[in-house]
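Retry 2 of 3 after timeout on previous attempt. Resubmitting structure tokens to design endpoint.
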């Protein structure tokens, strides 16, 4: 039970570290990314961003376009591992 509690605290810590503040959508649909987030993520004027709708909630996910390929590769690798584990369970 402590293991669950510890991982829960870890997730809370990560979420707290990931929160940069609240923004307001302007008349033209623009938002200002907080300076702390821009600095931490290395965002510069002119950087291309990919904007996705969150699959489950009314929200957006914004990625630096250059990092999307890395994200996709990591996620594809994760899916391969899950598929491999599922196949082993089916065989065993």
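Retry 2 succeeded. Sequence:
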């Amino acid at each position: 039970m402590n293991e669950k509690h510890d991982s829960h605290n870890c997730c809370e810590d990560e979420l707290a570290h990931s929160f940069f503040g609240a923004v307001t959508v302007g008349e033209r649909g623009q938002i200002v990314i907080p300076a702390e987030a821009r600095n931490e993520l290395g965002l510069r004027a002119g950087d291309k961003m990919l904007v996705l709708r969150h699959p489950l909630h009314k929200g957006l996910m914004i990625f630096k376009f250059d990092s999307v390929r890395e994200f996709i590769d990591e996620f594809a690798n994760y899916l391969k591992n899950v598929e491999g584990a599922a196949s082993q369970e089916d065989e065993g």
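Attempt log closed. The beta strands are 49-53, 60-64.
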